[in-house]
Amino acid sequence: MILDGIAKKALLFDFYGELLTENQKEVYGEHIQNDLSVSEIAQLRGISRQGVHDMIRRCEKILVDYEERLHLVEHFLTVKKMVGVIHRYAEEISDCGDREEISGRIEDIKRISSEILEQY
């Protein structure tokens, strides 16, 4: 996965967050989605900073383990990249007047869309 830390954590949480316990989901969500610090979460929940820190690290490990086993985020990013290429080719076709180049781009679109369809 080629993402920065925050984006990677947010995607992992989006894909696998429902597999955490309710408490884990709330604490990790406050940290990732609401950008609360460990101290702020600890104060809100009436628990120690160390407890919050440990829970966040445990949640990160759980989410990474799910991704290592299921690869849903990896597949999502691959398909997103392929759809981006298809979109670019479609824009090139609409801007192009050369029939041979249009035909080539259409074949590229068919090939890429077939790859996507075969994966799912």
UniProtKB/TrEMBL annotation:
Pfam families: UPF0122. InterPro entries: RNA_pol_sigma_r3/r4-like (IPR013324), UPF0122 (IPR007394), UPF0122_fam_protein (IPR054831), WH-like_DNA-bd_sf (IPR036388). It comes from the Bacteria. GO terms for molecular function: DNA binding. Keywords: DNA-binding. HAMAP family: UPF0122. PANTHER family: UPF0122 PROTEIN CBO2450/CLC_2298, UPF0122 PROTEIN YLXM. Might take part in the signal recognition particle (SRP) pathway. This is inferred from the conservation of its genetic proximity to ftsY/ffh. May be a regulatory protein. Belongs to the UPF0122 family. This is UPF0122 protein H9849_08690. It comes from Candidatus Anaerobutyricum stercoripullorum.
